[in-house]
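User: For a benchmark we're assembling, each entry needs the component sequences followed by a predicted structure for the full assembly. Here are entry 17's components. Please fill in the structure.
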Amino acid sequence: MSARITLATASRILRQLRGDHRTIALMIVVPCVLIGLLAWVYKDSPVPIFDRIGAPLLGVFPAVVMFIVTSVATLRERTSGTLERLLTTPMGKGDFMLGYALSFGVMAVIQALVATTFAVWVCGLDIAGPLWLLVVVALLDALLGTALGLLASGFARTEFQAVQFMPAFILPQFLLCGLLASRDTLPTGLKEISDVLPLSYAVDAMKELTTNSDPLPNTWSALLIVAGWIVVSLALGSLTLRRRTP
Amino acid sequence: MWVSRQKTRFHQVMNNSSEPAIVIDNLRVTRGTRLVLPGLSVSIPGGQLVGLIGPSGGGKSTLMRAIVGVQVIDSGTVEVLGQEAGSESLRQRVGYLTQAPSVYADLTVRDNVEYFAKVVGAPPGAVDQAITDVDLADHADALVGRLSGGQRSRASLACTLVGDPHVLVLDEPTVGLDPVLRRDLWTIFRRLAESGRTVIVSSHVMDEATRCDRLLLIRAGEILADSTLPELLARTGAADAEGAFLMLIDRAEAQGQGSAA
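Assistant: Structure for entry 17:
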């Protein structure tokens, strides 16, 4: 692996994105629209439901968007032959994965800043914990979506498959993450599965900072688990890259 | 600095050119259920322009994929510059052009070539040179996706040339191009071979055979001929390359039927 190749790859991907204004707009705007819709749904609710679930969903929406964008982008590299070509050059598999993680990480920072700003100042999201932590968790969640998308695209042969990996990889995590039913109340078996899945910890962290004015002592372990999942997904994803193909 | 680097490379290559650049021994490749190369052996000398000629589906692309080390092989060995094909130390020195242009359609020609230049660690001046070589200087800032098919494949070629590799494996680089461009590209290939590079070019256009130092005629995964064009013409008594190839192919098919019966 080489820093030169990783950075060249990241800047090349950002250059590709820069030419695609609509994709950038969708990446930034879609999470905001969803948060806005959510706030509107609960506008007249007698209990502050939006304040309770707004932050957790601020973590989930970017993860979903990033998952889809990354898995399609890397699949395109496979089908266009550019990946095969790159793997005949000195590029390492890790260079490729980190290049994607870095470039989409830059997009994730912008996305997290815009979505959090929108949620707090436009939709009036009120959380007990510090705002900077809200941004950090949203960013980590977007990176988690990117890393899982990179991993998933290794198993997709067509765009149809890649897009369907979103419901396959993300929606089960969403069902078990503790938003629909508290994770403590899940039946045996499901509870253990939810204890392994990364989105559970992303939502745990968001819930904590929703209600706790000093959430850091209770969230850092959850954040570490999410970060660990990001690293493991990138490593596993690089194993799906094959220099030799049949 | 660019000049001195070129010179050192040039001398390194020249010293090696007496030895074969590529040695393939008993290479067997199956793709899907099809046995594409049943057991191919060939030795390709360094510093030459070698034409890989033959009907489509005959195994040309598979052989090229094996040489650059992206093909899963069943058995046999492929050595390039004394190393196992695809090994890490070769990746800087072997350049590959896929048959379908593999460039980023949503980037400009220059962005594409600059990216591949950075990946292989080519000097900055190499980018403009590669774009000029493939005659795309006027389109350097156009998105590859907006270019014609021929321009797109030349953009792809520029991304291979920019690394100045010792061995160039080019899968049908001239297909679909007009005669002027084809001539210009063959001039570049000739220049590269004369500076000590080993250039392997596949084609199913027989008249391109006249431009090669050496010809490999491959059909159904087997080498029917490995010689120079004059030798080939003398052996078959044909008037031109196309006639010689058709004669050899007919002969091979007749033999195949003979042994089957």
